[in-house]
From TrEMBL:
It holds the Pfam family Neur_chan_LBD. The lineage of its organism: Eukaryota, Metazoa, Ecdysozoa, Nematoda, Chromadorea. GO terms for molecular function: extracellular ligand-gated monoatomic ion channel activity; transmembrane signaling receptor activity. InterPro entries: Neur_chan_lig-bd (IPR006202), Neur_chan_lig-bd_sf (IPR036734), Neur_channel (IPR006201). GO terms for cellular component: membrane. This is Neurotransmitter-gated ion-channel ligand-binding domain-containing protein. Residues 20-175 form the Neurotransmitter-gated ion-channel ligand-binding domain.
Amino acid sequence: MVVNTPNAFFLSSQLGQTLNQLLNNTFNNYDKRTRPFQGERPLIFSARITVAMLINLVSEAQTVSFNMAQYLRWQDPRLAWDPAKYNNISQIYVPSSSLWMPPIFFYNSIQTDAELSDPTALILSNGNITVYLPEFVNCVSRIVMDRFPFDTQYVIIGQTSALLPIQEMDAVMMEPPSLDQAYFLVKYIDRVAKKSKFLRFLDQIFGTTKD
C-alpha cells in the first residue's frame, strides 16, 4: 500500500480547520453562566455513580471513603450543529470548564477531591453532553457491624443543589453499565452499580418538595 503523505497531510489540515470553525461557530454566542433552557423549562440531567474501589471504612466515626466515577449527561441545544456543514463531524471534546455544568455536590461528604483538574466533556451534534468525573469521596454513612464479617453495608451518597430547585433542574438515574460497556472489566464494579437506587427527599432548607 502506497501512502501519499502530502495528500494525507492536506486532509488532516483541512479537518483541523473545519474543527476549529465548528468550535468557533458553536461557542461564539455561548454563555456558560446561564443554564440550558433558561426561561423555557427545567433542565433534566442524568446521573450515574459507579464505585471503583473501597478505600476505608471506619465504624466508630461512621464514615466510608472510596474512589468512584460519576457520570453526568444533559442536553444543551445551544451547542448543537449540523454535521453536514462540518465535514460530517458528529462529536467534539472540550474542557468541561468551558461549559455550564449542573451545580451539584454530595451533601453528606466530609471530603471530595477531583482526580482530574479539568475533565474532558463529550458533546454530540444534537447537543447532548457527557462528562466523566473520577473522584475521591469520604462521606458520612450509617454503618452497622453486628453481623461482621457476614454483613452487607449500604452507603447513601446524597447529591443535591444549593442553587437550583426542581422547578429549574431535576435529575434522573442512568441505567447501570453492562459488563462489556464498563471502563474497568471487574465484576465487582458491575455488581455494585446494579445495586444503585435513585431516591428523592423533602428539602426542608429551601422548601422544595422532592418525592
